[in-house]
Amino acid sequence: MAGGVILVAEDDALLRAFIEDGLKQQGYVCYGVGDGREAFELACTREFDLMILDRDMPGMNGVDLLRALRRRSDSAPVIFLSALGAVRDRIDGLDAGADDYLAKPFAMPELLARVRALTRRPPLQASDALVAGNIRLEPAL
User: Fold this and answer.
1) Alpha-carbon span 95 to 114, nearest angstrom
2) Quick one: what percent of the chain has pLDDT higher than 90?
3) Is the dihedral of CA 22, 63, 44, 121 positive or negative?
4) What CA–CA distances, in Å, run from 28 to 9, 90, 112, 114, 134?
5) What is the mean pLDDT of residues 42-57?
6) In this predicted structure, which of 35-39, 46-50, 57-61, 126-130 has the lowest mean pLDDT?
7) Distant-in-sequence, close-in-space partners of 133: CB < 8 Å, separation ≥ 6
8) Per-residue confidence band for 134, with pLDDT thresholds at 50, 70 and 90
9) What does the H/E/C string look like for the chain?
10) Predicted model pTM
11) Average pLDDT over residues 1-28
């Protein structure tokens, strides 16, 4: 069994429920939303171990949502789900800050494997170091 808290932002209610059920069976806690603005508000009020974002949602599309979250220094891993599977679409999603991109339709075992791969990575640690050019100042411990 795995664990962790995951945001699932998918406007298709049936698909969102399917994803959440699969994740819950693996021990994850899920928060599901169907709108990009709602996903942004939720992500600004709590920390997630992983976010699964649909690329095309009402309110705010997944790319804009992810860019806004990355500007806020949210470093949670992100998997994009999208019916847009062209190379340019995948590149745009990854360049926006996604860690992975899975085209629809997808197999649930593959999504779960990608979730496990991203959630087993240690979280990024913020540094207290000050950096200017090639000069780095570390605070004394």
Assistant:
1) 18
2) 72
3) positive
4) 15, 26, 11, 14, 42
5) 95
6) 126-130
7) none
8) low
9) CCCCEEEEECCCHHHHHHHHHHHHHCCCEEEEECCHHHHHHHHHHCCCCEEEEECCCCCCCHHHHHHHHHHCCCCCCEEEEECCCCHHHHHHHHHCCCCEEEECCCCHHHHHHHHHHHHCCCCCCCCCCEEECCEEECCCC
10) 0.84
11) 94
Question: Burial letters for 16-44: b for 16+ Cβ neighbours within 10 Å, e otherwise?
Answer: beebbebbeeeebebbbbbebebbbebbe
Residues 94-122, mean pLDDT to the nearest whole number: 92
For tokens 């994009």, the residue is 80
